[in-house]
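Repro case for the chain-ordering regression, as requested:
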Amino acid sequence: MELESPQEQSEPAILSGPSDARTADLPGWFHEQQRAAWAKFETLPYPNRKDQPWRFSSVNALDLSSYKQGGSLKQTERDEILERSTGLDAVAGRLIFADDQLLRRDPLPEALLKRGLLLMPLERALLEHEELFRRHFMAQPATLGSAKFAALHEAFAKSGTFLYVPRGVEVELPIEIFHWLHGENAAVFPHTLLIADDLSKVTVIENFRSAHRDRGGFACGVNDLVVGQGAKVNYICAQTWNDKVLSIQINATTVARDASGLSLNVHLGGAYSRFESLSRLTGEGARSDLLAVCVADGSQEFDARTLQDHISPHTTSDLLYKNALTDRARNTFGGLIRVEPHAHFTDAYQTVRNLLLSDDAEANSMPGLEILADNVKCSHGATSGQIDEDEMFYLLSRGIPMSVAKQLLVSGFLNEVVDRLDHSAINALVHQLIEAKFARR
Amino acid sequence: MSQLSIHNLRVSIADQEIIRGLSLDVPKGEIHAIMGPNGSGKSTLAKVLAGHPDYKVTTGQVLMDGENVLELAPDERARKGLFLAFQYPSEIPGVSIANFLRAAVQARLPEGEELEATDYYAKLYEKMDLLEMDRSFTSRSVNEGFSGGEKKRNEILQLAMLEPKYAVLDETDSGLDIDALKVVANGVNSLRSPNLGVLLITHYQRLLDYIIPDHVHVMVQGRIVRSGGKELALELEEKGYESYETVKDEVGEPALA
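-- result from build under test --
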C-alpha cells in the first residue's frame, strides 16, 4: 500500500454526503439533525430561474459537483494564513478558521470572561451550551429561496462561531472572525450563532477570504443573529473571496422589543455570490438597518434577496443597498417589506441604487411591499444610473486623472452606506477593501 | 511667453456659435476682469478653457506659456497649471474635501512619489484659516449641503491648495452676501503674485471693489468689444451694457480682419 500525505489525498465530494467520521466526536442528537438535513437537501429541488426567488439569477452557477470537503492544512500553510489574517487593530476576541478548521482563537479579556461572555467554536458550544444552541441554531427557516442550501449547510456545519453576550454586557471592541478558503475546490460551511441577551451590545465583523487567487471554492454560510430586548448588535460581513468562488450566505436576524440590529454586507468577491437577509422585528420599538455594498467587475454576479418582516407594531426597518457594476457584471436585488396584520405604526424603507460603469453591466431590481396593517409609513425605490458627467468634469478640472476620479466617485457613492455604520476602524477597513478591489484592476 | 493667450477663438454648442473670434492675453502676475451682460458667452469661455466636453472649438488657439492647451484633456490642463473656479460647483456625495484635495495634490506629484500626510494637512489648515473655514469642513462631502458662500470659499480653497499658473474665476461673486464676498476677495488677494495670472469673470462691478483688476474687458456676443483699465468697470456700473447693445448687431456679422 502506498502512503500518501494528507494533502494529496482526495477529499470526499460534498455531494456524496457528510461522513459520520467528520463529526464522530459530536453528540448523537446533532448527528440525527445532520442526517435529517442531508435527506432534506436531497429531496429539495435545485433552484430554477422560473421561481420568483431565483428570477434573473444564473442558477447554472450552482453546480456543486466539483466541490470537496476541506482537507487538513500543513503547519506552514496554517502559519501563513494566520499571518495574513489582519483586519482591525483592536478587537475583543478573534477566531480564525481555514477550510472550516479552527486555526486560532484569541482569548477574551479577563473582564469580559468574568461577566460571562462566551466566544467559542460551534462544536464546543453544542456540547457545553446545548440548550442555548438547540433553541437558536437555524431556528428561522430559510424562506428567501435557499432552503436547499440551508439544508446542505445544516448537514455539514460543524465549524463556526458561537457568541453569547449576557444581559447588560456591553462589548466595546468588535469581535473579529476570519473564514479562509484554502484547498482546491474546498467547500466551507461557516456558521455564526450570535445571541445578544437583553440590554447587551456587541459588534461582530466576519472576513471571508481566499488563501489563493486561483483556486475555486464553495462557501455556504448561515448566520443566526438573535437580538434580545433593548440590545444592540452590529454585524459586518466583509466578503472578499477570489473571483472563482461560489458563495451563498443566508442571514437571519430577529430583533426583540426596543432592540436594534444593523447588518452591513460588503460583497466584493466571488464568481457568483448570493446573500439572503431575513430581518424579523418581533417586539415593539425594534429597529433593523439592512445595509449592503457590492462592487462587481469582470463577469461577477451578485444576487441579494431580502425580507423586512414587521411582526410587531411601532417597528422600523431601513434598507439601503448600493451596487457599483462594471464590465459584464450582473446584480440582482429582490426585496420585500412585509407588514403583518396588527403591526400598525410601522416605518419601513427600502432603497436600492445601482451605479453602472459600463454598457454591458446589468442590474435587475425587484423591490416589493406587502402591507397588511394600517397607519404605516413605507417607501421603496430602486434606481440605476451612470456617473454624473458634471461631477466627473469637476474632478478632472482639478487635475485628477480619469481612473482616480472614477474611483473617487464610486467610493463616494458607496460611502453613504458604509458611513451609516458609526465605527471609524471598521469603516476604514471597509474602505481599504474597496480600494484594494479597485487597485487590482 | 509667460501668459495665457487666447487667439481668435470660436466655440459652438449644438451648431450655435457662442464665442465668435475672441482674443485675449492674460500675462502672469496680472488680474484681468471680463464683464458682460448675460448670454455674452462669459461662462462658456470659462468652461472651454477648462476643457468641458460639451463645447466644440471650431477655430482658434489657447496657449498657456506657449503650449496649446486645446489639445490637452481637462485633467492634463489642470496639472499643467490651469484652474477654473466654477460658477456652480458640483456636489460630490460621499467624497470628503480632504480626500478630494489629496487626490488633486497627489496627481501633481511625480510618478511614484507619495504625498506626505502631515505636510498636506498643515498646508490645508493654513489655507482654510485664511478663508475662515472651519476645520470640520475637511470631513464633509465636497459641496454637499454647502451654502452659496461655502461653495465659493471651497473653490478658492482649491485654488490656494493647487497653486495654478492661471486661474479663471467664473462669477465667483454670485450667491455671496457682502461678508462672504469680502472673505472670498481677501482669499484671492492673498494669492496675488507674479506667478499667477487671473481671469475674473463677473457680471457686476462690486467684486472689483475688493479685487482690483489690472485690466477690464467688455464681452458682448462672444467677443471682446472694449478693453481698458479698472475705471472701465465703474463706467459699466454707471451706464450699463446698453451702449454696447448697438454694437451687438455689428459683431453679429463676421468679424473684419
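Ordering looks correct now. The interface with chain B takes residues 388-391, 393-402, 404-405, 408-409, 411-416, 419 of chain A (CB under 8 Å).
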